[in-house]
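Below is the record:
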Amino acid sequence: MLEEGSARLYRFGRGEGGSPVLLVPSLINRWYILDLRAGASVAGALVGEGFDTWCLDWGVPGDEDRHLRWDDVLARLARAARVVRRTTGFERISLLGYCMGGTLAGIHAALHPEHVSALVNLAGPFDFSRGGVLSAMADGRWFDADAIASAGNVNAAQMQSAFLMLRPTAQVAKWVSVFERGRDASFRDAFAALESWSNDTVPFPAAAYRTYIRELYQENRLARGGHHVGGRPVDLSSITCPVLTIVASEDAICPPAAATALNDLCGSSRRDVLTVPGGHVGAVVGSRATKTLYPALVSWLRSCC
């Protein structure tokens, strides 16, 4: 229904009524972490409960996308949301953003509050001064985003190395788990699916990267004010729809305080927080997600949409 460059808009199910839900994944990871496999799928959980569920696939940027700006990314999200509204006939839709997608969904909701019926921030940062190790790594005193982006898109290996530095022993621990649990067929299936996704990272468009690092990580403009998109100020207090922030108890990529800042800064009368067990990825697709995250998410969306 929407094709723009390598970006695509997918519709998983037509639903049985209620506000459509648009899933907004991270810009630098493939979208299917939200539909990883049977039993480990945010999209599947929503469709199974009758929600009209959509997802924006950002695609894989090519060298020609090095000039894609942060403003262009938000404009693409706005067009996807417009397609969902036009196709379904709903004037307002729900947004669920994961990781950087949560940040993008929040910015969109602040710029277009009249079109958003509910906002779910799934482990997306808003106060980047509370971003933990990643914020320290991106500190402008020793990190020059312009120098990195001057060579073109920031490639997948560069992005992946930053996340590996958060938990240097994670790779060893991962293979120890495989050795210990490798005879379990369900574990092998889950491991293979997640391993395939984690190795399928994509480049970060250079121009958008500059803005993301400088204005959000280094200057914290989204929380402090001064962040603009398309010439318009992004005022998080303009968000008036119900807001749910979901944080993972062991999240090193988006520490809980970085995400829950949205609830402090938005203008909503209903601002809920849900803490689920696990890390940044495991909380979303791990074995406990079906018992914790998915039922709570469905219940919350039903209560406000």
About this structure: The two ends are 24 Å apart (CA to CA). The CA atoms of residues 240 and 268 lie 4 Å apart. The beta strands are 3-4, 7-13, 21-24, 53-57, 93-98, 116-122, 228-229, 232-233, 243-248, 271-276.
